[in-house]
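S.,

Sequence below, as promised.
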Amino acid sequence: MTIHHLATRFGRNRHQIGGYEPLDNEALYRHVPSIFAREAHDSRSERYVYVPTIDIVEGLRREGWFPFFAVQSVPRDGSRHGHAKHMLRLRRDEGIGKPEAAEVIIVNSHDGTSAYQMFAGMLRFVCTNSMIAGERFEEVRVPHKGNIEHDIIEGVYTVAEDFPRLIDASEAMKEVRLSDDEQRLLGEVSLVARYGDDESPLTPEQIIAPRRYEDRGDSLWTTFNVIQENVIRGGLHGRKHNAEGRIRRSRSRPINGIDQNVTLNRALWTLAEGMQRLKTG
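The prediction came back faster than expected:
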């Protein structure tokens, strides 16, 4: 599979790249150049400790962690493009042959808009669906000061220590069965997480509808995955009222912003866990 196919398989954003094989530096540089920034943005003070993200990636490769997905934001200020916020998903090869694999998600920037942040996540291979665990799982933040490179590597292992609990959580969700009304309820609260007080162009029935045969089922895990994919990837046809009160057709937008992706992903996981608690008492 070519680099072009890898990129388009996971989306049409030219600042995004992902695939089933570890990404090399050529692929990363082509799509996510801010990882390779040679210095911090000139808005940063002398106290700012600069460590290029690619140095962290190289260090993690030596530890057996490899990037399989990367994306960077496109700031309005063009001078920040080479230092913009970026996100990588790294994992070991231990998940090959399994339906899911645990991942470490790293978020960083070189323009002062983000510290190094690390979260636990999972990739579901059947739909290349990338989830981020909710608030009860480890989150590590490393500011740009001190012995940053060591602290980041340690942070990755701190997050990875939560993998057994993460996998147990997904297996527990697979055992929980939802009625049609419960699936719809989870869809309703997920739309609130996505659109807040704004009118949703979608119905709960739309976001609980699976996109592929493998996603049919009534387990909490399957329902959560279907909702997460439909909400994050967008592309569903909906309807909204315009300023004159007329109904206009629209298409739901994908979640491309890194911060919004992380926040919404974690919120959806937390909502699924809330449903699990309701079902299991």
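Residues 1-12 have pLDDT under 50 and may be disordered.

Coffee later?
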